[in-house]
Amino acid sequence: MRMNKLTKIKAGITAVFFVLAIVIVLATGMGRSAFDAKIGKIVAPYQFNLFNWEIEALSYQLDELLFGDSNIAAEDSQMVLEYFEIRQQASNLEWQIELVVSGIKSGNLEEIRNQLKDIQQQMESLRTKAEKVLELQIQATMAKMDIYNPLDEYLNIDITFPPVSFELEAPPYLLVISPNDSIERIKEIMLSPDLAIEERIATEENVDELGVSSLVVGIGGIATYPSFVIDTASLQRTIEIAVEEWLHQYLFFRPLGFYYALHIAGVARDYDIAVMNETAVGIASDEIGAILYKNYYASYIEEEDNSQPSDEQEEEPAFDFYEEMRQIRLAVDELLANGQVDEAEAFMEEKRLFILSNGYYIRKLNQAYFAFYGTYASSPTSVNPIGEEFRELREQVDSISQFLNTAAAMTSRGDLVDSIN
Fold it and tell me: How far is C-alpha 47 from the chain's CA centre?
């Protein structure tokens, strides 16, 4: 269903209240401890101001609703492909910069950064149009699956809410902090997306001196409104992330999502709820994203497939990254359970170098790394059974909308087990 201008404005106003609700939840704290004060002092020069970004982004979105190009349609896929072709050139240069700064390869940083600046200027004229096309495609795909709004199960109103809206730009970095003697996300702070790698490393070193494990990690998106969606991913991955962040917004108005918001705010910490939310959303976004990609970019997929030799059999990979990471996690869990923190950290560094020798670059492998990525139980590297339980639930229900409605009502791990049984 395509909304007219008045309906869009009403939806936008409602979305503002949605944003304020999130800000209130995220701003709620349990009081600043001495540890919090020390962390705050370290990150103060780099901390991301979410409130200022929201004001600017919402103003821009309102301007687009009222005065933006109304001739853009979901079928304008070529416009998106053109943007991502230029985006890929920029991504290659950004990766070169990371490798040079990390000392893995040599190169002229100033020259590479100048090339990147030129390409980024080319991207600006296409970004807004590509965003709009993808938003319309996501909304249309959701509608075909009977996914409209969090209360549709009760109200049966075929209007998409929150309206699909995201910004293709670098999200803030996330500082993830875990204890040294266990793997758990005890604190997360958003840092500026402009943080240079040297500043990320220095921040981690300063935080680690407080007796914890930290990692400044790049993330794919954040379910603000509009959402952050990383601007360096492939087209298919960008679609999946945009769908994923919208689903987080969708779930916020249901028990599972709201409990997750309380967990993030530190009001009611529940690691199982965090894993359940991220896993359910991950499974749903992968499925929806794959359908959208196939429906709107089928010719693009065929071109890629035809470019690959069809008569050659691929060899089995000698190194299984996912299995290796699973085994590392299990070994680290055992070492930490036995109080062998130093041994666990030495083991992770040894394995990081081993993985690097097999062609997989991980800048820093520590407790915070596993604490962050362990939240996504649908990942092939996860050792958390919640991932398998949600996959089993998906097989038992008829549609992705039924899967989402079942997951949305959950408030504990027990609810998930009961749903399967």
Answer: 19
Query: What's the start-to-end Cα distance of the chain, in Å?
Result: 37
Which tokens belong to 364?
């820093």
Cβ of 224: how many Cβ atoms within 10 Å?
Answer: 24
CB 154 within 8 A of CB 411: no
Pairing of strands 173-179, 227-229: unpaired
Compute the distance between CA of residue 323 and CA of residue 308 in angstroms, rounded to an integer: 27
Alpha carbon dihedral 353, 357, 360, 364, in 10-degree steps, equals: 10
Please tell me the distance from the alpha carbon of residue 165 to that of residue 391, in angstroms, as a whole number: 28
Our CA dihedral for 413, 418, 420, 421, rounded to 10 degrees, sits at 140
- Compute CA distances 21 → 24, 125, 148, whole Å: 5, 33, 20
Dihedral angle, C-alpha 306, 311, 315, 317, nearest 10 °: 10
Mean pLDDT by 10 residues, the chain (421 residues): 45 49 47 80 92 83 69 84 88 84 81 87 85 94 90 74 89 94 90 92 95 93 89 89 94 91 80 90 94 88 52 62 91 95 96 92 93 76 82 93 93 91 78
Closest CA to 189 of 211, 216, 167: 216
